[in-house]
Specification:
The chain contains twelve helices and 13 strands. The chain is α/β, with parallel strands linked by helices. The strands form three sheets. It has a seven-stranded parallel sheet. The two termini are 17 Å apart. The structure holds N-succinyl methionine and magnesium ion (MG). N-succinyl methionine binds at residues 19, 21, 26, 50, 55, 135, 189, 191, 239, 290-293, 316, 318.
Length: 371
Amino acid sequence: MKITGVELRRVQMPLVAPFRTSFKEELHRDILLVRVVTPEAEGWGECVTMESPLYSEEYTDGAAEVMRRFLIPALTARPGLDANRVAPTLAKFKGHPMAKAALEMAVLDAELRAAGVSFGRYLGAVRDEVRCGVSVGIMNSVGELLDAVAGYLDEGYLRIKLKIQPGWDIAPVRAVRERFGDDVPLQVDANAAYALTDARTLARLDEFDLELIEQPLAAGDLYQHAALAKQVRTPICLDESIKSAEDAALALAIGACSIVNIKPGRVGGYLEARRIHDLCQANGIAVWCGGMLETGLGRAANVALAALPGFTLPGDTSASRRYYAADITEPFVLRDGTLAVPREPGLGVSPLADRLAEVTSDTEWVRADAA
Ligand code: SMG
Ligand code: MG
């Protein structure tokens, strides 16, 4: 297919409640969507960057800039483009996996809509619905946290992930265990807030029988994670450290983790995400699908990915209402702790025109011959 042009669209989405991690509190999302137009079909992509480069090096204004200046011109200059050629075409530009992933997602959506094939079927989904967890932010008090967790358990979430940081770790985890019991699948995510010298503190989490501890140390600390893994019993899961299937292979080879959080944006797209899934599955390593507070567009693709056979743990693929009072697509609704995998072609969901218009703050058309 040949790209006619790409629309960059910014949408303003207030969160239903503040979401605090060890690096930032989010109250509102300023999201970059891409719409790839081809003669056969249109496709949507969602860029999962945040406003500032705190989760990783990327940030939303930077992603828009690298797309309009480098990535989109490289793609539109290519006749015979398909989703599998997006990453190789963009590989000469270093970094920017989230920007690249959004474009690849949009091209894949256009291609699959034209072919009448769903994301799930294309990626290799083996389930009609996926089991969901929820990620619970850092709160002002343990009481507030317990109320939030109680609400999510009532809604039916199948596992709870608590965001932690130094000073908000042992006490909140203990309180959640004491209040809700040992049977609730519970895990924690530090977003790289600790150092290897904190190994003793992290080992104190062992008594709570957590499913995993996610990204305790810095993204570059692969070796240190391997050392930490020898000092704690709780399985280590990596998020920020894994930017490609190669990274995942290295992490597994040196024992830096025993579980992987797969986020398509972080690794440059759904096709690389599938490669990581395949690698982990071949090595008997469990994976689960992470989240970046996506709208219904990114959620549709994540849910399709999470339906692959190796995604054996519940993901951060929560229902739309956990994030947004009104999503830009028909909302994803939790049923018995699961979300349904869309069956229609491509993403299987589309933005609701009125809703999209309401939340759009800016649109920009990048034409093919701008190259
Ligand atoms: O989409 O439910 C979601 C958020 C899940 O905790 C979540 N994401 O490190 O895994 C993570 C964080 C990154 C985003 S923080 C704004
Ligand atoms: Mg994480």
